[in-house]
Specification:
The chain has helices at about 50-55, 65-80; strands at about 25, 40-45, 60-65, 85-90. By secondary structure, it is of the alpha+beta class. It has a 4-stranded mixed β-sheet. The radius of gyration is 13 Å and the shape is globular.
Length: about 90
């Protein structure tokens, strides 16, 4: 199999959506993840609310941050040597 290529631009995690991501929804499943672990979904303006509601109703949503702010914070953490356990998943 061929390795999957990362998209050239961040795209929304909503199934079938190919719009540019504008938001990061940070979440974790407390039954599976340690409290400090954050997984991420990316959302366009149109899907920010629906993806957030999907996570919130399950008690998973921890934070919603503008993509530009999140990436700036991540770059700062990487520069400081912080090994973050953040991952990005597409919604099933």
């Amino acid at each position: 199999m061929f390795p999957l290529e990362e998209p050239a631009r961040p795209i929304c995690s909503a199934k079938g959506c190919r719009a540019d991501a504008r938001w990061v929804l940070a979440w974790n499943n407390p039954k599976v993840h340690t409290p400090e672990r954050r997984k991420t979904w990316l959302a366009c303006d149109e899907h920010r609310e629906s993806l957030g509601q999907f996570l919130a109703i399950r008690g998973f949503l921890k934070d919603t941050v503008a993509f530009d702010v999140w990436t700036a914070d991540q770059r700062a953490a990487d520069t400081a040597g912080n090994d973050d356990a953040t991952t990005t998943d597409d919604q099933a």
